[in-house]
Amino acid sequence: MEANLFAGKRIVVGVTGSIAAFKVAGWVSDLAKEEAQVMVVMTTAAERFVTPLTFAALSGNTVHTTMFADGAAESMAHIELAREADCLLIAPASADVMAKLAAGLADDLLTTTVLAANPAAVVVCPAMNSRMYAHPATQRNLAILRQLGYAIIEPATGMMACKEEGQGRLAEWEEVKERLARRFSPQDLRGVRVLVTAGPTREAIDPARYISNRSSGKMGYAIARGAWRRGAEVVLISGPTALPPPLGVKLVKVTSAMEMHDSVLSLADDCQVVIKAAAVADFRPEVRHRHKVKKEQAADEIRLAKNPDILFTLGQCKRPGQVLIGFAAESDDLLGEGRRKLAKKNLDLIAVNDIGGSDTGFEAESNQLHLVSASGVETLPHVSKLHCAGLLLDRVVQRLTEVSPAASSRDSSA
Ligand code: C5P
What we know:
13 helices; elongated; 2 domains; about 35% helix; Rossmann fold; alpha/beta; 8-stranded mixed β-sheet; 5-stranded parallel β-sheet; binds cytidine-5'-monophosphate
C-alpha cells in the first residue's frame, strides 16, 4: 500500500466562479504530477477568473466548458467520464453552484455532470465571502448537499480576497489532498483504535538544557497518517518535533520519557494496536535543577537515573487480541537485537532500522525496515517513510485478522 494512491485515478475537477479558482490551478498541476487523470470542467463565471488554457496545460487534457460541444459524441464522452469518475472535486464551489446542486438543477455542463455522478464520489470545497457562507440559505444548501451524500471540505477562517476576515477561504490543498488520499485508501482499519508514539523525548538538566536524541518523529507521524487514511481512530503521542499535526489524528504532546510513560499507559488499554516508534530516552538526569546551572558551578558529571521501559511494561500487561509493535534503531547486529527485543518485550513484531546510514533511520525522508516476528525476518524495500508506514500497516491488518477473525469482515473497499 501507499505507493501512489493517485496514480490512474480519474478525477473530475469542477471549477466555478470564485477568485479562489486560481489556487485550484496549483491543485490540478499537483494531481497531474501524481499521475491522476484530471479532467477539468469550468462554469462560464470561472472562465472570467482563469482561462481554460491554463487548466488544459496543467492537466494535459482538454477543458470542458459547454454542454453543447460541436460533436454530440464528444458531449456524451465527458458525461460518461463523470459517471466513471473516482472523484468529482468541485473547487472552488461558489454559493451559486451549491444552491443549484442542492436543488438538483442541471443547466450547465458542471451541474449536469454532478447529477450523472455517484453522489458518494462528490467532494465540495466551498469558497466565498464569509457573510455569503454564513447566510442561512447557504447553510441550508450545505446541509442538503450533505444529506445527498456529498462530502464537504469546510472553508478555512482568515483574511479573504475582499479584505474581510471570517470563514470562507478555500481549504488548503494539503488538507484536501490528504482527504482525497483517505478516499483512495482501503478502509481496512475502520473501527480500530491505534496508538502511535513518535519523536524523541527530552530529559531536562535544568530549565535551559536537556539530553535528547536525533529522532525527527517522521516515521511515527507517517504511521499515524497512514492509519488515519485507512479509517483507524488514531492517537499520536509525540515528543517534541518540528512536524505539523497529522489531519484527523488526536495529538497528545509530551516532553519527557516519564510524561510519555504516563500518557501511553493511560491510553494503551483502549487501543487494539500500539505502535511505539518513539525514541524514548533510556536515562534522565537524576537531579533536575530548578534554576539554570551556572558555568562556574557545574559539576564534572551528570548522574543518570533509568527511565521505565514503556514498551516492556505494555508487553507485560498485553491483553488478548492486542497487537504490540516496537521499533529498534540499531547500528550493529540489527537482526540479533531485533530478535532479542521481540522476546524480551513480548511483542508481535519489531521494526528494526539501520541508523548507521544517511538515508535510513533518524531524520531521513526514507527508511528500510527489517520486520522481525515469531515467523522470521522480512526486509521491506527502501522507500519513503509514508510508504514504509503503509507496508507496516498491511502487516498490522493481517495480524488483526489472525488474532480476531471477526476483524476480517471489516470493509476493505475504498
Ligand atoms: O530497548 P530499545 O530502547 O532499543 O527499544 C526500542 C523500543 O522500545 C521502541 O519501540 C521504543 O519506543 C520503546 N521504548 C520504550 N521505553 C523506553 C525505551 C524504549 O517504550 N524507555
